[in-house]
Every structure is written in C-alpha cells, then in structure tokens.
Amino acid sequence: MQQQQPLPAHIASLTDQDAHALVNRLREQLGKDTIILGHHYQRDEVIQHADFTGDSLKLARIARDSKAKNIIFCGVHFMAETADILTGGERFVSLPDLGAGCDMADMAEVRDVADSWLEATKAGAKNIIPVTYINSSAALKAFVGKNGGIICTSSNAKAVITWALEKGNHVFFFPDQHLGRNIAKGLGFDPARDMLLWDPKKPLGGHSAETIASKKIWLWKGHCPVHALFTVHQVKKIRETSPETKILVHPECAMEIVDISDLSGSTDYIIKTVEASPAGSKWAIGTEKHLVERLAAQHPDKTITSLNPFTCLCGTMNRISLHNLAWVLDGLVNGEHYNQIKVLPDMANDSMAALNRMFELS
Ligand code: SF4
Predict the structure, then answer these.
(1) Domain residue limits at 146
(2) Does ligand 1 have an atom closer than 6 angstroms to the CB of 273?
C-alpha cells in the first residue's frame, strides 16, 4: 500500500484562511472537470468545499454518474476504491490522505476470509452466500463477487440479506457483526438460535462442524470502533435524565443498544428522521460526532446531542484535512496526480458483479 507523503512546505505552512482561499482559487481554475465528494463524517473545514455530500453509496453513485475527469474523495479508502470501480477505472480518483482507512474494513482481510471459507466448505458446508457491507476492501468485494455474493449498505441491508437467505443455506456476513445481527434480528431471526459469531483466529471460527451446519447466519467478528463507543449505560442515563429525548442510533451499534433505542437506521435515515421531526424535538444520536454536530448546527430549533457525551470521532476519516485537499488540487493544476486510488481490473470486475447484484435490489 502507498504511504502518505509529507505535505510540501508551500502547502503545510499555509494558515487555514490562506488554505481555504487556495482551495477556492484552484477549484475555479480546475472548473467542472473536478468534483469534490465529502462523506458526512468529514470535518467542517473539508466538507464546506464539497460539491456533494452523502454516505458512501450515494457518493459512489455520484462519482459514477458524473462526467468529471477528477474525483477528489474526502472519505476513507474503501469509498475511493468503490468510486474507482464504479467509474470503470477511467477517471482519476484521489484520496487526499492515504492514511484515511477504515478500521472496520481492516478487520476482514481477504486472506483470512478465504481461509475461513475453505475451512467451512471442507467441513461440509454447502451453498454459502457471502455478503459484505460496502465498508470493506475491494479485495473482499471481489471475493464476494466471485463466489456468487452481494454487497450491502446500511440502507439496503434488509433487502440484501433477505435475498441472500432465500438463495443459500447460509449467509456469511462481513465485516460488521453488529449490522448483520441487527438486520437479521429485525427479519425475525434469533441471534442465539440462528446466528453464530465467526472468529477468524480460531479453527472453523470457533465452532464445530455441526454447529456451523445448524446456523443460518454466520457473522464475521468485526465491528466499527466508533460505534462501539455507545453503551447501554448511556441510553439508560438519557432515559433517566431526559425521558422526552428520543434515542436514534446507527445499526453499527451493538444489538443491546439498538434494542433499547427508539429508532435505528442508516446515516441517511438519521438525517431524514431529524429533518422531519417537529421544532422542539430532542434527540440523542448514536453515530459519528461530525454528523451529529452538523445536524445540531443545521437544526437550531431542535435539541440534538450525541448519545456519547465524550468522543465518538472516526479518527481515520478525520485524517483528511483542508491542507491535504489543497495539496491534491494544487497537484492537479500543475499536472500531478497525487494519491490515486486504483483497483486492479480483475478485482474491479469481480467487485462489480457483487455491486450489480446490489443495484438490482435497490
Ligand atoms: S466510522 Fe467506523 S465504519 Fe465508518 S469509516 Fe470510521 S471506522 Fe470505518
């Protein structure tokens, strides 16, 4: 993997004010050939320069449908990879800081997944349908595509898992155990009776061949470290101190939290729910801090706080800075293509098979 290089002095030494001015000037020079995409979890200093904001899938679709030659993806690595796949590898897709990965995606290395898959099939499991959350590497998406599987987002996970359950004897869900468990439970499956947690560090995920044969849903042992910062205690505290406050969480939170919250849904669902709520509503939200703070600023007539009163910041997403953005744009103006994210053609083709199955459902 490429390493992020230090920013050159003429960029690193800029004040924030000068960096904003430079970004604006470079944008004008580059015109419509360059678009900036900003994920909801980005810092304000970055997102204010985005042409489009959204969740990972919305941004990838915008990249696909745009005619821009250059796509600056202010998000994390797997999102830029997805944009490159969806644009057929024909545009320049850049991630302004190569250190902006996703800790959850890193919990499902494709080598470990392939080893687990082999073990399960050797143990006699048949007709396994792999499903990966879009928050995963292109290598894992390709593995899933090659093995008849499908990709999901938090918005369409219900439809995707339903499809996979109808198609196979078992659904192997990567990398977020919580999203898989919450959605499958919502579909009527019992976590104890119908699901198992697959620990890739243990033979057969830590189970016997009989156990894996008897469970319909296998959940890879991965999670989002940001959404792991929300606890049952925090929910109880809000219930005690502010019973009128509604608790709204992302399904990457643990099942115990989703179960006792008022509402749960994707980033898009969270935004729309808050937007549609009447003035005076009170919300405690369980998702990344930048999105919650932005919602609070956009809706001064409502009381919006984080469910976690301390920190719940995505540290990798937060690596994209105003200065990194200025550096990538400065490079483009000078004919340099910094931090290109490029997925190998075979990997992109296999990933596309899994993405297309998802698009057919949503
Ligand atoms: S919030 Fe969690 S899932 Fe999203 S990019 Fe950060 S680590 Fe990954």
Answers:
(1) 105-224
(2) no
Note the pLDDT tens digit of each residue in 77-102.
Answer: 999 999 999 999 899 999 999 999 99
Nearest ligand 1 atom to alpha carbon 316: 6
Indicate which CATH number applies to the domain containing 233.
3.40.50.10800
What's the pLDDT score for residue 1? 60
The minimum-distance atom of ligand 1 relative to the CA of 227 is 2
- Tell whether 263 is covered by a domain: yes
User: Is the CB of 249 within 6 Å of ligand 1?
Assistant: no
Do residue 129 and residue 213 come from a single domain? yes
Do 183 and 246 fall within a single domain?
A: no
Pocket-testing residue among 42, 317, 318, 319, ligand 1, by greatest number of atoms within 8 A of Cβ: 317
Q: Is the CB of 102 under 6 A from ligand 1?
A: yes
Q: How far is the CA of 153 from the centre of ligand 1 (A)?
A: 13
- Structural domain count of the chain: 3
The answer to whether the CB of 30 falls within 8 A of the CB of 333 is yes
As a three-state string, the secondary structure of 173-223 is: EECCHHHHHHHHHHCCCCHHHHEEEECCCCHHHHCCHHHHHHCCEEEECCC
List, for residues 289-330, the tens digit of each pLDDT value.
999 999 999 999 999 999 998 878 999 999 999 999 999 999
Ligand 1, atom 2, residue with closest C-alpha: 224
